[in-house]
User: Fold this.
Amino acid sequence: MFIYNAVLAYNAWIWGIPILIILIGGGLYLSFVTGFVQVRHFPDVLKSTVGGMFNKEEMKEETGKHHGTISSFQAVSAALAAVLGTGNIVGVGTAIAAGGPGAIFWMWIVGFVAMALKYSEACVSIAVREKKPEGGYKGGANYYLSKINKPLGFAWSIAMIYSLITAAMCTYWFRCHSL
Assistant:
């Protein structure tokens, strides 16, 4: 019972002010640093993804150049399919049930500033990727994190333990309880 109460106390603390500071503060900082990339490039994103879906000539030109290529819309669809899961679907329903309709507003705010976080992560991934001898690239979040994986002592250990516990518990909890 002690462990259960300790986990509940830690959960109540971490999902309060600390996570708000990390998510919204970090997202706002990166939004200012990138010049609000999520607003500046939004028309370009719509034009190259959804807009290309309605322009058949551009679609034919885009996919017809090389064998095995996919259109921008197909790439976005595949990326969204890889990212969205039961947590995103059930999480919204759970948030509305727990917090009321105002939870949607805060999801939009956090989602807006998180776009700058995701953009920055993608830029770092592209900046540190390396060309493989047999062709192609190796990179991504795991790759650049392994490059900076120097022993940081206690803080690094706590971060790794927290990430493993979160990955193990949250993934299966949402999937099991969404059925």
User: Anything to note?
Assistant: The two ends are 27 Å apart (CA to CA).
